[in-house]
Design goal:
Structural class: mainly alpha
Number of helices: 8
Radius of gyration: 19 Å
Number of strands: 0
Helix content: over 70%
Largest sheet: none
Shape: globular
Amino acid sequence: MRNTWLSRAGAGCALLAAVLTVLVVSGWPPLISYDERLARDLHAYAVTHRGVTHLVRVLSDWVWDPWTMRALAAVACLWLWRRGDRSRAVRVGAAVLAAAAVQQGLKALIGRDRPQWPDPVATAHFAAYPSGHAMTATVVCGLLLWLLPARAPSGVVAAAWTVAAVSVLGVGFTRLYLGVHWFTDVLAGWLLGVAVVSLAAFRHACPGRSPASPRADGPAR
């Protein structure tokens, strides 16, 4: 059941990302109009609320920065490796590297311009689509949730999901608020991130592992 859910979620998000990419590249008017309207409204607020904007920049540039997320993934890889779970350590590392390659490849291929403002509150490099912040946060938070022990207390699981959701949604909002991404950039990052996590976790979700396995009481596969 879990294996089926993962495969469907990954395939569905990959398909939606592909459709979204086609719409963005073709410049579908309703979507582009929504992107521009939302960007204008958020930027107008950002330039008049500097205190809020400063806090948002700290969250975006430090707390939820892609390199912060990758550092968390590196710690998880080291922990898995030291406890002998090298298969998942490799999967986590490969998934984070694959996410970076996919996002940079699409940025170079599509070459979408970022929003341009006469009074910017932040700057960013490279092309806009997809959002690297949103995709990296989705991949790392998703992988860390996947690594939760199967017998973790329900309170710990709930807290982990809450932190992950706030981080993934929060980093997307910060990129929009700072005027360095369009909404569709962030949405693509989220969708592609879920697809990468589903692919990384797919094999370990397959049924058939023996209950007597030495790691049966370890983290959920």
